[in-house]
Specification:
This protein is mostly helical and 70 residues long. The protein is elongated, with a radius of gyration of 17 Å. It starts with a helix and ends with a helix.
């Protein structure tokens, strides 16, 4: 998984979905605030699965969607 995508997922899950933004300006200010808070206490991501476990899961998923008939 791309780490940038994971970071944006965290932003969305922990900040944007919980807030209400009435304008683009408010949204931008909210994102900037969250980034500032994140940078004050940065945390590395810790993977809980091995590369082999991730690849096995991905292989099963691709097999399942390729057999879906779509």
């Amino acid at each position: 998984m791309n780490m940038v995508e994971r970071w944006f997922a965290e932003l969305t899950e922990k900040w944007l979905r919980r807030g209400t933004h009435h304008s683009t300006k408010e949204l931008k200010e909210s994102i900037t605030y969250w980034i500032d808070q994140w940078n004050d206490d940065p945390r590395p991501y810790v993977w809980h699965k091995s590369a082999d476990e991730i690849l096995t899961t991905l292989a099963a998923y691709t097999q399942r969607i390729s057999d879906s008939g779509h």
